[in-house]
Amino acid sequence: MTVTPFSLCGEEVTLAHTVEKRDAEFIAAANPATMLALLDELETKEEQRANWFRMAQKLGEDLDTAERLIAELDQRLIEYAGIATREARRVAELEARKVNLSKLSVGEVMHMTGFSRDYAEGWCAGNDNAIHEIRTAGIKVKES
Length: 144
Description:
The chain has 144 residues and is α+β, with helices and mostly antiparallel strands. The protein is built from four helices and four strands; from the N terminus they run ββααβααβ.
């Protein structure tokens, strides 16, 4: 313990205080150079914090933009799924129905057209080939 006399309002007063080792170490370390270094570190940390904050804001904005884009793409996906469903139904309808091709005899073709037997035979052969190719493609043919 240390006793220090001093004057207070014209009276002599004695102040007693204890100086411990850790207090002395702190006081020794708390010199102007150390305080300036600590202030520099604090300033650096504040700049870093501000940079992190700006980066977080930018990332938040990027996230908002991405979420808006995802919402737009989700909407498009729903629209396209609807279109695909409609078109799949249409394809199923087309696949289910039968194509109506007339199967005429050579004599009927000759009578209808007034052309020769050779022409009528060629027409009938072409018609038979068309029916075969259409069936090969998976299309049902209703012959009349």
